[in-house]
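Morning run. Coffee first, then this:
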Amino acid sequence: MRLIKWNPVFNSLDDDDWGFMPMLRPNTFVPSLDIYQDKDNVIARVALPGVDPEKIDVSIENDVLTVESSMEKESEIDEKNYYKKEIRRGSFYRSVQLPTSVDGDKAKAEYEKGILEIKIPKREEVKPKTVKIDVKNK
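And here it is:
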């Protein structure tokens, strides 16, 4: 039998207190995501295999991207005696501060093969500008 050192911080937390550490919250699913940017957009790719795309909510407010949904339990397998159970069910959310200011009203999302891709245009004021330099002969 393996001994685990008692930690009063983690043992005293109620279920509602886990919001500050969603990756450690018991019985929750936190989707993995990649965020990158090109010249005009911030792109987020979220791994959501098995999630009905009609039940995914995406919102962008104050340059924070939030993805949330729920995956229902299949009632027919509730009574089975599981040896191992790793497939997550229930609700989830993921909020991430975006790396630059974006125009959330113009965002577009596509779901294909378990990947949700969200393309969010950058605001005009944060897009790189090029300035032509006029060289004058002396």
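The chain has one helix and seven strands. Good start to the day.
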